[in-house]
Design goal:
about 290 residues; two-stranded antiparallel sheet; 10 strands
């Protein structure tokens, strides 16, 4: 059976790609952010996953305001990126694992969710940059060490799903992964956020206290987060802070007890409260023996 090893969460600010391309990982502005990935990189080298299921939001490569699914699951054999502007270099494609994608899709539909199934899907900076930072050691090309299943969540246009709904959807995804009959080691990645707003009267809005509250409950009891409405999330974290829904979906897919390996929080990176968090899921047998 497939086994979930843990979950990783990270911001996906577009300018990260430009910093990688220009080799600015040790620049004083960028170094605190990139250093936050080092514990996750080491953990991934130790556990050696086969697959990464990545929860993120699309920025216009696949969906736009006229067609915006609440949830979307990639079921493609390969996931190319494309030029989305921002000065981000176009990445090499990442391989998919279509049998697992279809298994997840079938199981979450059976659990009464209704995702769009994408047999072709482009991946943008929300997927490519965290993968690069976690798996390529700050941009050093090392091939493609995992296959991916990208899962899209609408954080862009109202109505958006509630944090509770995202958590429950994540639960369904996690149960689907753990019921997959092949022996695979799976990591989960939630990308985006934390608090930030890029436009309007509140442009530049950051909320350090709320971000810490979110990270504390990601590592501990997530139930207080499920009580936050979408409107309250916007009020506290900013319109682009809705991307925390990606983190919350990832947290829902972690089904066992957790150990927090690391967290970093840095203000600001390109007008964003940037954060990295690594959570290990404890083996069930070990839990039973304790």
């Amino acid at each position: 059976m497939a086994r979930i090893l843990g979950g990783l969460a990270a911001s996906h600010v577009p300018s990260i790609g430009g910093a990688i391309a220009r080799g600015l990982q040790q620049d004083p502005y960028w170094k605190p952010f990139f250093d936050g990935f080092i514990p996750g990189q080491q953990w991934l080298r130790d556990v050696k996953p086969d697959v990464a299921v990545v929860f993120s939001n699309d920025h216009g490569l696949n969906f736009f305001l006229d067609k915006m699914p609440t949830f979307a699951i990639g079921a493609a054999p390969i996931y190319p990126s494309a030029d989305e502007g921002w000065g981000i270099p176009v990445n090499d494609p990442w391989p998919g694992i279509t049998p697992l994608s279809w298994h997840i899709a079938n199981e979450v539909v059976a659990a009464e969710f209704d995702p769009v199934i994408c047999q072709e899907m482009l991946i943008d900076h929300a997927v490519c940059l965290p993968l690069a930072c976690f798996f390529e050691e700050n941009g050093t090309k090392k091939g493609r060490p995992v296959k991916i299943v990208p899962v899209g969540i609408n954080t862009v246009q109202l109505p958006v799903p509630s944090l509770k709904r995202c958590f429950e959807f994540g639960r369904a995804v996690g149960r689907a992964i753990e019921s997959y009959p092949e022996d695979l080691k799976v990591v989960l990645i939630g990308t985006g956020g934390l608090s930030h707003q890029l436009e309007g009267e509140r442009a530049g809005h950051l909320n350090k206290e709320f971000d810490k509250f979110c990270m504390d409950h990601m590592a501990g009891d997530p139930s207080p987060l499920t009580k936050i409405s979408a409107i309250e999330l916007i009020e506290k974290a900013g319109t682009a802070g809705l991307e925390f829904m990606n983190w919350m979906t990832m947290r829902g897919a972690l089904l066992g007890d957790l150990r927090e390996i690391s967290r970093t929080y840095h203000i600001p990176i390109s007008n964003t409260a940037a954060a990295v968090q690594v959570l290990e899921q404890l083996p069930r047998m070990a839990q039973a023996a304790e």
